[in-house]
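Data availability (excerpt). The following record was deposited with the supplementary files.
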Amino acid sequence: MIIDALLYDGKSSKEHKVEIEFTFGRRVKVKSHEIDVALEEVVIESRLGNTPRVIEFPNGIRCKSDENDKIDQLLREFDIDFSKAHKIERSLVLTLGAVALTVLFVWFMLTSGANYSASFLANILPKSTLDEVSEITFEHLEESFLEPTKLSQNQEATIQKHFDALTKGEEGYKLHFRSSPEMGANAFALPSGDIVLTDQLVALSRDNEFRDILGVLAHEKGHVVEKHSLQMAIKTGMASVVIGYITGDLSVIVSTIPAILVNSSYSREFEREADRYAVNEMKRLGVSTLYMANLFEALEKKYGSEERSTIESLMASHPLTKERIEYLKEHSH
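Predicted structure:
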């Protein structure tokens, strides 16, 4: 049996018109995308009225089809139980109860449960989506704000050595050296693990060995580990992300999150978590956090702890508070 559907591969924002073939050998094929899997590996979501049915493949690909009658027919032919959801909708009371629960759940996701929802969604989004979101964001920043670095080879080599020690044995992290007169002294991390360091921040270093910059990189790594930037973007664009995840159309997420990432800043709670992570990493590497505290004081003196321009607030506009500086000094060794 052939079923017409729309395919979302999770790697691009484009939807693809495809034909899904269900064979008598209990195989499910999408020839245009070279998919050939056992029927038992495919999840066909419950029917709810005539809303499009979602079909999930083991590699993260999702399809949507409105040919519900055909899908019901093949479920009968392959002796697969009908969805309970479809039976429920025949009862008015049960249907209204299901609708009420759905409305309450979505309301919770978008209001008082936003923090939990952002954390939950950040941890279940596929890596391919995180990579695409980060790539789009980085391309935008490259076009609008970033220039080639002017650091010397020795400066780059020293900082890169610190970064390699910080991320030793871990995959997915990459350090990018860039200059940005508009963004100024800054460093920021993308959900993929790409971390950008500006020349202007390096210029404020008070240590010839750049151990203060190591502290900043450890702080940024903390944001990646805790998925702070992703949670921040999801919470701001919660409605789009929830709709995208529920419908299986990850293109909604890919098109929404980058714009939010570019125009948002971290909460103080996230900054404290990243500071704690940095302190632990600095201790592990045997480097005092006093270097990092001194750099933060230089940043506070140059930019001020409260007054920041829009450009300075981009991405990693970390609020520099006396509380954070004191915390780093207290944990120096």
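Summary of structural features: The CA atoms of residues 219 and 276 lie 8 Å apart.
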